[in-house]
Design a protein that fits this description.
This is Protein NRT1/ PTR FAMILY 4.3-like. By secondary structure, the protein is an all-alpha fold. The chain has helices at residues 6-22, 39-69, 75-91, 93-104, 106-129, 157-186, 195-227, 229-249, 264-276, 329-346, 349-358, 361-367, 387-411, 419-449, 461-483, 491-520, 539-588. Helix 2 runs antiparallel to helix 8 (229-249) and helix 3 runs antiparallel to helix 16.
């Protein structure tokens, strides 16, 4: 995990210069560095980010309560509805990134899909308020008659249609908005000249995210519980409307990057051209490759893709060669970069599998513990998820104000430490979240089974605090790493890829639970997670398994991060030698 190489800097400078020349204002005219961009413009996007996450988190964290109590779906169906909703939000971020980079640009994508998300919130609020759009009220705890007939009528037909249309309007809007909030805010900075400000923006974006989550998990959930879900959904709609107003208010200050056309076509052209030219031998002199003087410089990784740049002589030099048979070096290098970052992305899936435990099993842990804070106040177990964000709203400003300048003195990096180092540090720390969870669950279980005691819910706060710190490093580092890749016109899509890690992490969590139960169910004590009673289950052993997987994943990440950095460094050395030879030839001439 080395510092940024000269090779990377040169590529970033080329990308930066090209993007600076192409950025426009709201009228489509070339942007002015004095009037447009900078933190003053990014502040409007940060406002949208905090308000949007506030609205969507309040809905997502309490959705299962509404689905069970108001729509009368079964527990298993309700769980599937919630997980499918969350997974869809993150998967749809790819659509938002693609539409932004290819056709709409980030501002218009934000504007359109923020309206879509707002309409979903409003429709949810209307349905929750009007009795005729919901099944009749009933006691869901007594869900069957003595003869077995269902007592509570499940939402069907038009009522179910309204609910799912509203829910997936929110999913579509939020999914397409998420990656563009990050990329549009980051687009307000010149990547080289304002590198320090860009790093500060990424930290500020995570601070806005933490504030939104904290308010959603405390104030908005309290409103939903005490004033009704219709009021709660209405507050989410109001937050989204205010965020939309904030976005529009910054229109005159934004630097906008025009869309580049389909981002997948150049990638497909490289793969097709490399396949068609697979029998040709790549020249030892890279200067012989087609259009080797472009935005990106040639590297020696994935040399098989260089075949896409081989110009085949057919005796007819006047004939125009198809782009599906001959590509530029810049095109090929962009595909190489895309392939190179996949292992880094994959290493964060285990990290998000741990996050899934904090939103499921750890909350279940809390429900079996003493939740009393005072005589009259009990802590809702679900509110434990707010603990990391309480800590982060203090740590993030301290990190940006004190740690980054201090580390910068030693590393010379504008972000204090590189994004790869930041990701690695977070992955390492996350292991101890599961170690803490395992130790505390063992203590809780022994106290409950052997001593018949119920320990305080505060015993499990360390696992939330530790993971909160690790998320500050990994989540922000991953977004910064992907956004800063030298892929012109793909920043929104690359940012969207980082969100897919959440979906894969949650899917892996479900797979692990099933595998663990199937493997351990043959033991005399039964499966680790096969019972609904935590005192009979062995959740502590499952946590230890995740701790081991997380630790192994950290070393896996070290391998791939070193491989990535080594490729960059060797490419830089080769390019310097190449430049020296060119200068030598020119001087002789």
């Amino acid at each position: 995990m080395e510092m940024e190489t000269d090779r990377e800097k040169e590529n970033n400078n080329n990308i930066c210069e090209a993007e600076t020349n192409s950025s426009v204002d709201w009228r489509g005219r070339p942007s002015n560095s004095i009037k447009h961009g900078g933190m003053k413009a990014a502040a409007f996007v940060l406002g949208l980010q905090g308000l949007e996450i506030m609205g969507i988190a309040a809905v997502g964290n309490n959705l299962i309560t509404y689905v069970i109590n108001e729509m009368h779906f079964s527990l298993s169906e309700s769980a599937n509805i919630v997980t499918n909703f969350i997974g869809t939000v993150f998967i749809l971020s790819l659509l938002g990134g693609y539409l932004s980079d290819s056709y709409l640009a980030s501002f218009w994508t934000l504007l359109i899909f923020a309206f879509v998300e707002l309409s979903g919130f409003i429709l949810l609020s209307v349905q929750a308020h009007l009795p005729q759009l919901k099944p009749p009220k009933c006691n869901n705890m007594l869900n069957t008659h003595d003869n077995g007939d269902q007592l509570c009528a499940e939402a069907k037909g038009f009522k179910a249609l309204i609910f799912f249309v509203a829910l997936y309007l929110v999913a579509l809007g939020s999914g397409c908005v998420k990656p563009n909030m990050i990329s549009h805010g980051a687009d307000q900075f010149n990547h080289q000249k304002q590198s320090k400000q860009l790093s500060r923006y990424f930290n500020a974006a995570y601070f806005a995210f933490s504030m939104g989550q904290l308010i959603a998990l405390t104030l908005l959930v309290w409103v939903q519980t005490h004033s009704g879900m219709d009021v709660g959904f209405g507050v989410s709609a109001a937050a989204m409307a205010l965020g939309l107003i904030t976005l529009v208010a910054g229109t005159f200050f934004y630097r906008n990057k025009p869309p580049q056309g389909s981002i997948f076509t150049p990638i497909a052209q490289v793969l097709v051209a490399a396949f068609l030219n697979r029998k040709h031998i790549s020249p030892s002199d890279t200067r012989m490759l087609h259009d080797n003087i472009g935005i990106l410089l040639h590297t020696n990784r994935f040399r098989f893709l260089d075949k896409a740049c081989i110009k085949v002589q057919d005796g007819n030099n006047t004939k125009k060669i198809s782009r599906w048979r001959l590509c530029t070096v810049t095109q090929v290098e962009q595909v190489k970069i895309l392939i190179s970052v996949i292992p880094i992305f994959a290493c964060t899936i285990i990290f998000n599998t741990i996050l899934a435990q904090l939103q499921t099993f750890s909350v279940q842990q809390g429900s079996t513990m003493n939740t009393k804070l005072t005589k009259n106040f009990h802590i809702p177990p679900a509110s434990l998820q707010s603990i990391p964000y309480i800590l982060l709203i203090f740590i993030v400003p301290l990190y940006d104000t004190f740690f980054v300048p201090f580390a910068r003195k030693f590393t010379g990096h504008d972000s204090g430490i590189t994004p790869l180092q930041r990701i690695g540090l977070g992955l390492f720390i996350s292991t101890f979240s599961m170690v803490s969870a395992a130790l505390m669950e063992n203590k809780r279980r022994i106290s409950a089974v052997n001593e018949n005691k119920t320990i305080s819910i505060f015993w499990i706060t360390p696992q939330f605090l530790i993971f909160g710190i690790s998320e500050m490093f990994t989540a922000v580092g991953l977004i910064e790493f992907f956004y800063k890749q030298s892929l012109k016109g793909m920043q929104s899509f690359l940012t969207a890829i980082t969100y897919c890690s959440y979906s894969f992490g949650f899917y892996l969590s479900s797979l692990l639970v099933s595998l663990v139960n199937n493997i351990t169910s043959n033991s005399s004590h039964g499966g680790w997670l096969s019972d609904n009673n935590l005192n009979k289950d062995r959740l502590d052993l499952f946590y230890w398994l995740l701790a081991v997987l997380s630790f192994l994943n950290f070393f896996n990440y070290l391998f791939w991060a070193t491989w990535y950095s080594k490729n960059q460094t060797s490419s830089a050395t080769i390019q310097q030698d190449f430049n020296f030879k060119v200068v030598g030839d020119d001087s002789i001439a």
